[in-house]
């Protein structure tokens, strides 16, 4: 190796370490500004893009420093920073309120929304730059994406191990009275720069390792994906069996789950993943069984995605758009694209499933565009949902009483609050009144639970009934018992537990009883529980076969330590009948 060749890795290492250290310092400064509510945290539209860009964008040069031409890398990093800033500014704008500063307006999805398109787009840009043409060979995209996933895993594992060792060092030195290390690692002024520096070092070592042992990395990847591909025949049998059963069961049970679209899209995603596990880089076809399973899976996608589209359309037509349904629609668009491409690949003669390659590249680009649309005003789920739900209200499809005004106030950001402002001036007096009430709320409110009723409760011993005061009591929301509910079917036992001449009420909740007693004002409340360390089976069945009764009084002693009472319980609970343990001798 020449001196020039040897200098290149050293220069790359120095640049990566400088990027990691700068990232860590920047994150520390932003965190301190957020903590102290100082500039730029007081300007969410500035703080949000700074935070998200500092967290996400440096990963691009860290990963591609020695693999992309300098001009291309700088241009791509600048473009990625601009895109990330736009997503973050929109997220801060939609979530901004006077009391929400710093990172407050940002929700966790924005970090995923920034990371996902950057990851996908980067693995479209870098192979094309290396090939010096707009579209590189498919194997290059496949190889780089999987290699960088392995590098990311190794880097995160290395950084995690670094912190585990620091925590261990802090604990060891604390044993001998030295707490300096624990104090040091607890300081954000150390934690952020150290983490950035160590992660950058880990990335550099992972890049060097995977380049030097490229064959080993490919071998491990191939083994893992080949094993995964052998699950494709099973998934094909599951999907085909499901579709073959539908004519006999009808669609009603499927719609009855109220999650048909998400389940069907999950099945489509599983088929797509397994097809790709079988295809891999497309250089060598798999063995016969996974190969034919992948072809069949490509065709099975057609009815599954059609059913998913129909299920989603039904929900949207009946109940309008919600953020979840907007995201599901985006997933559906991606699934349709994959389905068309994979079905053509399965049917087209020639090299095995070759159409899969352009399909994957096109849908990767489509996914990036969809993610950008979803997290900008173009197709923001909150904006679309608010428009859909308000339109349903104004058209009379839902009444003001049925309409969820709190969704606009608390769950749809600025778009929902703007929608409430418009509804405050609605000609319908009831709508306007409810909109004003919702706008004035500072926290979500929830409807009261249905009043408990006990018409289905079986009372023991036979002939007894629940006290009227128990049945008609205005119970609070929290009673400590699942049996205090509308339509409760818990068995009830009336027994005088404390010997005062008045029965207490015991409600059987699973394998235990909740014991209720009326106080001097006639108010019932839970005072105790009766349970066993042994498997007692179904209390309802035992009550049918044996009348409930109290055991004879047994003296036992507790342990008093420092004025506190500790109950003495046997290590062996003794699951035999009527066993007495730890009772004092007379």
Give a verbal description of the structure.
The chain is mainly α and 586 residues long. The protein is built from 21 helices and seven strands. The protein has helices at 3-36, 44-56, 59-64, 70-95, 108-131, 138-175, 180-185, 188-212, 214-229, 232-249, 252-256, 260-279, 288-319, 323-347, 356-374, 381-395, 405-410, 413-423, 429-440, 468-472, 539-545; strands at residues 459-460, 492-495, 504-509, 512-518, 524-530, 559-561, 564-566. The strands form two sheets. The chain has a five-stranded mixed sheet. It has a two-stranded antiparallel ribbon with strand order 6-7. Strand 1 (459-460), helix 20 (468-472) and strand 2 (492-495) form a beta-alpha-beta unit. Helix 8 packs across helix 9. The chain is globular. The model is unreliable at 1-7 and 576-586 (pLDDT under 50).
How would you concisely characterize the structure shown here?
The protein is mainly alpha-helical.
Strand and helix layout:
Layout: H1 3-36, H2 44-56, H3 59-64, H4 70-95, H5 108-131, H6 138-175, H7 180-185, H8 188-212, H9 214-229, H10 232-249, H11 252-256, H12 260-279, H13 288-319, H14 323-347, H15 356-374, H16 381-395, H17 405-410, H18 413-423, H19 429-440, E1 459-460, H20 468-472, E2 492-495, E3 504-509, E4 512-518, E5 524-530, H21 539-545, E6 559-561, E7 564-566
Parallel strand pairs: 1-2
Antiparallel strand pairs: 2-3, 3-4, 4-5, 6-7
Helix pairs in contact: 1-2, 1-8, 2-4, 4-5, 5-6, 5-15, 6-8, 8-9, 9-12, 10-12, 10-13, 12-13, 12-14, 13-14, 14-15, 14-16, 16-18, 18-19
